[in-house]
Each structure stands twice: as structure tokens, then as C-alpha cells.
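Moderator note: this is an archived Q&A kept for reference. The question asked for a predicted structure of one protein chain; the sequence and the answer are reproduced below.
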Amino acid sequence: MRKIFPVEIDEENFKNYGIILSDKTILSGLLKEKFYISKVTAPSGTFCTRRMERHVSTKEIFLCLNQRMVLTVAKCNVNERPKSNMVESFIALQNQIVVINEGIWHDVNHGFDVECEYYYLSNEVKGILERRWFKLDPEVVITEI
């Protein structure tokens, strides 16, 4: 098992995965006509990442609501499954908007020190590969809080 520690997200350390928005009005240009929105309540504390998913044809937007949120991501070549040595975790602050780019592997988000709520938005996607979760290669990653 590989152990990692989340770092506070900023534009510089997240630039390989996506962007951080400071204004909710900018969201309109990121989504197409049909999109999904869902509200999630996420547990907090140390967690294991065993599998990840990605969307090769759409960005995904996370709106952190009431508490700090941990995003776990990995960037691999387009034909590769997620690699455990590429996994990183970031802490998004309350009311922060984070956009992950197309093709970025990610786990479900977690609360940092307490349970958190967030919205995620993504364009309507078609195809089984857009919704499948893949096992990390070669090992599980533990994000230590």
C-alpha cells in the first residue's frame, strides 16, 4: 500500500488536473445543454482508494459546500488504467469550485476533518467506458488525514 497526505489546493499545484474557479457565473461555459447534478454527503477521515473513474469526453465540476473536501485524482495516458504512483490528494476549501479536466481519474470525494457536502456536475455522457470504475494498478492508496 502507498500512503499519501492531502495538500491544500491552489492553481499551481492543481494545473495538471483542472482549474479552480472563483466565480460561480463562469460555470455556464463549462457545461453543455444536458448535464447531471447531484448532491453528495461524504464521510471524513483517512480512506483507501482502490478504484477510480474518469470521463474522457466531459469535465466534472465539484462545488464544496459546508466543510473542507478531499479530492483524489490521477493523470495517466489516455489508454492506461489509473496507476497508484500517480495518485494525489488535494483539500478544497468551503465554497470552492474545482473543475477536473476530461480524462482525469478520480475517486469519490471525502470530508477532511468532518463530514462534508458537495455538488458535482457533469455533462451527459454515453458509453460504458465513461462510467466504469477501474482498479488501481498495482496497489491501494491510503490518504492519511
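Archived answer notes: The chain has a mean pLDDT of 88.
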